[in-house]
Design goal:
Layout: H1 4-21, H2 31-43, E1 49-56, H3 58-65, H4 67-84, E2 91-96, E3 99-104, H5 109-123, H6 130-135, E4 137-141, E5 147-151, E6 154-160
Antiparallel strand pairs: 1-3, 1-6, 2-3, 4-5
Length: about 170
Amino acid sequence: IGSVRLLLKKITERKLQHARYANPLTLLPGNVPIYQEVDRLLSQHRSFTLAYADLNHFKPYNDIYGYSRGDLVLQLLGEIICQVVAETGNFVGHVGGDDFIIIFTSDNWQTACQQIVQDFNQRIMHYYDASHVEAGGHSAVSRSGDICFYPLLTLSIGVVLPDPTLC
């Protein structure tokens, strides 16, 4: 049994730590809390699944629609991931840019990843002009300076199942 004052102090400390290491755009935990969570699970020899989510063709989207609209897409993705992975024990982090980490301690990681991709594919259409949706993408300048056609944004999720006893 602790005092109310001690409890409030601990809550305040956690909020400050979250704010210090959170991604400012999505307010999701950033790199430091992600590393801490992986280290915690490994030190407890707990099984977990690590998923890395990345948007395909995000740079051309930003080039055509602008960074503010790109930020809305990143916020959308963070929201979708959090909604699907709302189970207690799972962890969602935002590495930065269009890269997100999901640490599953539940067994439904495959179903959750499929749901995230499906939800993203449905909702991303609202972030495009109708002509680009109809064309299935848009043209933009590539990294090499050429004009290229880029398909609509899609989401890739890579998954690893680390062995906590070997890590």
